TrEMBL record:
The keyword Signal applies. Belongs to the OmpP1/FadL family. This is Transporter. Residues 1-20 form the signal peptide. Its main location: membrane. It comes from Ancylomarina euxinus.
């Protein structure tokens, strides 16, 4: 029953898909996004639960509500270095990551809250006929975090907090496979590909993690924050992962039967996709009544993503092991806020995001590269309690030449380049 309740919450909240570096999504607050998505050392409102649970107890407001979402236009261009006729780009849908935070102070020192947000996800649609169709045609990965949180102010300069992460994870992968007159031999002039079949893998599950934070205020102008969000392994068991195969009607029934006899048949599978841990350190300094500056450093433990493996006990063709061997990565963020008047705050920021991907096992399912992001935004206070928040990100990755040396990929690769534009809007209500 508990599983069904959590799943219903996730679906009602509306699902999303978005491509980002690795498969992390960094738009968990419109105010923070406008400043380069800093936030570990900032205590504006209930959104602190995601950035640093320790900051929640330091809010001045007894109750705080913050909600919003983003529209993500993302694109990856692929350049084949042997033939320009094979060049293509993704046709990704507009993605809609979101956040919802609510908190209450039970005493002067104790606060509680509930957060729903979307820190991981990826969507790439390469199409049915592109050069890498036997590796990937379409992939969508989603995660929704539901986080009940408690925070306590230990003394005048330090507070701590913790949240339980209830994580709904979902993925779907489509790719083609070649249909040959003799399935036991590779494609050749005497064993030509006569059609393409289709394979779809999908599954969803619920797992758990945690989010911890310490918030320090050594002076009236300086805040320091440290937070840690744990790794969550999205593990699918035989009841949660499903694989299906499809054959064109033009393929002779006897050949279809032969493929099915060889294991190309529907079945269940197990798989694990890690959502990595992150350690985040930040500071914020109020220069004067007009200017606030802040900087964060995020260390992300992407090295946990060693392999993408599917194991099936009843459909041999679903079995695969593809090395990924990603590296740990760092993201560096800096932002500033200028209070133009009593109602209007203006924001700008910049970040540099290192890619964790390995150019020897580089897969178009999650094409990555070192990238920069330029951000801006504002908040307008409609009254003393209610504000409208808006922000944008323009992100561009460096062009990278990389290949996948896994056996099934046969060295597929070329040049990739990612771009994204992300406007965000939200509201904040403190009372």
């Amino acid at each position: 029953m508990l599983r069904k309740i959590y799943l219903a919450i996730a679906l009602i909240a509306f699902t999303y898909s978005v491509k980002a570096e690795g498969y992390a999504v960094n738009v968990q607050g419109a105010k923070q996004t406008g400043m380069g998505h800093v936030g570990v050392a900032i205590n504006w409102d209930a959104s602190s639960m995601q950035f640093n649970p320790g900051a929640l107890a330091t809010l001045d407001a007894k109750y705080s509500l913050s909600m919003g979402g983003s529209l993500v236009w993302s694109n990856t261009e692929y350049t084949n270095l042997s033939s320009s006729a094979l060049n293509t780009e993704t046709d990704n849908p507009i993605a809609t990551p979101f956040y919802l935070y609510g908190s209450a102070k039970l005493t002067d020192k104790l606060a509680v809250g509930l957060a729903v947000y979307t820190p991981f996800g990826s969507s790439n649609i390469w199409g049915d006929t592109w050069a890498g169709k036997y590796l990937i045609q379409e992939i969508t990965m989603k995660s929704i975090y539901i986080q009940p949180t408690v925070s306590y102010q230990v003394n005048d300069w330090m507070s701590v907090g913790a949240g339980l992460n209830i994580v709904y994870g979902d993925f779907k992968l489509n790719k083609a496979f070649p249909i040959l007159p003799n399935p036991t031999l590779p494609p050749s002039a005497t064993n030509p590909i006569i059609a393409d079949g289709g394979a779809e893998l999908s599954g969803n599950t619920i797992k758990y993690g945690y989010n911890l934070g310490v918030f320090l205020q050594p002076t009236e102008k300086l805040n320091i924050g440290i937070s840690y969000r744990s790794k969550v392994d999205i593990e699918l068991d035989d009841s949660e992962g499903e694989g299906t195969f499809s054959f064109p009607s033009t393929v002779p029934p006897a050949l279809v039967a032969g493929y099915k006899a060889g294991g190309v048949t529907d079945g269940t599978f197990t798989a694990t996709l890690p959502l990595p841990a992150s350690l985040n350190v930040g500071f914020a300094y109020q220069i004067d009544e007009k200017w606030l500056v802040s900087a964060d450093v995020n260390f992300v433990e992407w090295s946990v993503y060693k392999n993408l493996e599917f194991v099936s006990k009843d459909a041999a063709a679903l079995n695969s092991l593809n090395k990924r061997d990603w590296d740990n990565s760092m993201t560096y963020r800096i932002g500033a806020q200028y209070s133009a008047n009593e109602k209007l705050d203006l924001r700008a920021g910049f970040y540099y995001d290192e890619t964790p991907t390995n150019d020897k096992f580089y897969a178009p399912e999650t094409p990555g590269a070192d990238k920069i992001g330029i951000t801006g935004g504002f908040s307008y206070l409609l009254n003393e309690k209610f504000s409208i928040d808006a922000a944008f990100i323009y992100s561009k990755g460096e062009k990278i030449e990389a290949y996948d040396t896994n056996t099934r990929s046969q060295g597929f690769g070329g040049e990739y380049q990612n771009t994204a534009f992300i406007p965000s809007v939200g509201i904040t209500y403190n009372f």
